[in-house]
Amino acid sequence: MVEYKIAKPHITKSDEQAVLEVLRSGDLSLGPKHKEFEKKFANKIGTKYACSVSSGTAGLHLAMIASGIGLGDEVITTPFSFVASANCILYVGAKPVFVDIDPRTYNMDPKKIEAKINKKTKAILVVHIFGHPADMSSISKLAKKYNLKIIEDACESVRASHKSKQVGTFGESAVFAFYPNKQMTTGEGGMIVTDDEKIYKLCASLRNQGRSDNMQWLDHNKLGYNYRMDELSAALGLTQLAKLDFMIGQRRKIAGWYNKYLEEYANLVRVPVTEKGNTHSWFVYVIVIKNPKINRNEVISKLNAIGISSKPYLPSIHLFDFYRKDFGYTEGNFPVSEKISASSLALPFHLDLKEKDIKYISNKVVDVIKNTQ
């Protein structure tokens, strides 16, 4: 039986050689590679500064601190995301205030934001879900109207754009992530981008135990963290970045094949959309089962049994146990997010897949859904 993994990084000989060269150099941390990676990544995104970190979660934590968000503040965000986007707000003592999502794009619904704004609101943490940009035109107008900061969680959406402007360039800062299932990988790792020199310098200090910018080895003038990116990861980031546009182009091709073979079954599944004016960079390929009577988890189980790896994407954050306990959330609070969470699943999506594989997977998905109640 052929087994189709849900995700797999695209690693080539150039990636292996770059990592091996650093390993042999002995400069495994605080060497030249992370600086080079930062400079080239900033150029790619179109920001003045980039600060490498150990993960997207670490980057979001530092972005919260750099924005001055703290105890008693509120930050508006989405419940339909990986849990880190909301947790990073809790890390600084603030409260995540959820806004339900758009049923087409699965991004935060701008029409529902204004009702959640009050005197405690300090920022909007925008998540660009699955590689598809949020409606930044509408969100930016609201932020300007109420003098709110925008922080972008672009961890899933590198090189996506809204009206020809790349995600990561709309807010005072943004965060990208490079976990192995992302469009590019450093193994573990992330990047904060900004045009604000003060934010960059603060994040650069905080990631390195709060070290003073006088660069003295043991001079720490603020509480910091061990959120550095190591040199092996940075070296991999450089070679991955060099082929990023190629890899995203291939992901778009694979998404196109899925659309080709699944769109005729519009009565069974909803395929991802790309809104007019947006470009999609395809982190994952997620479908939604339309019939609410069909058990999504059973579909996933049956697919896994025949070698097609699949997972729910994504649970609604407010229904995790500690969010229920600490904030009193329950079913029905954010019905659109909950509906998508209960009916969505991610299909295998990586560069080793050929059109014949996508045709096979699509046909099996349709067969399983038809035979599941």
Largest sheet: 7 strands, mixed
Strand order of the largest sheet: 1-9-8-5-4-2-3
Total of helices? 12
Mean pLDDT: 97
CATH topology of the largest domain: Aspartate Aminotransferase, domain 2
Write the element-wise H/E pattern from the N-terminal end onward: HHEHEHEEHEEEEEHHHEEEHEHHEH
CA-based gyration radius: 21 Å
* Terminal CA distance: 25 Å
Percent range of helical residues: 25-40%
- Percent strand equals 5-15%
Which blocks of ≥5 consecutive residues have pLDDT under 50?
none
Shape: globular
Strand tally: 14
Query: Would you identify the CATH architecture of the largest domain?
Result: 3-Layer(aba) Sandwich
| Name of the CATH superfamily of the largest domain | Type I PLP-dependent aspartate aminotransferase-like (Major domain)
Which structural class best describes the helix and strand composition? alpha/beta
Tell me the count of domains. Answer: 2
CATH top-level class of the largest domain = Alpha Beta
Description:
By secondary structure, the chain is of the alpha/beta class. The protein has two domains: 230 residues, Aspartate Aminotransferase, domain 2 (3-Layer(aba) Sandwich), CATH 3.40.640; 127 residues, Aspartate Aminotransferase, domain 1. Helices cover 37% and strands 14% of the residues. The strands form three sheets. Strands 1-9-8-5-4-2-3 form a seven-stranded mixed beta sheet, with helices on both faces. It has a four-stranded antiparallel beta sheet with strand order 10-12-14-13. It is globular and about 65 Å long. InterPro entries: DegT/StrS_aminotransferase, PyrdxlP-dep_Trfase, PyrdxlP-dep_Trfase_major, PyrdxlP-dep_Trfase_small. Belongs to the DegT/DnrJ/EryC1 family. It comes from Candidatus Yanofskybacteria bacterium RIFCSPLOWO2_01_FULL_44_22.
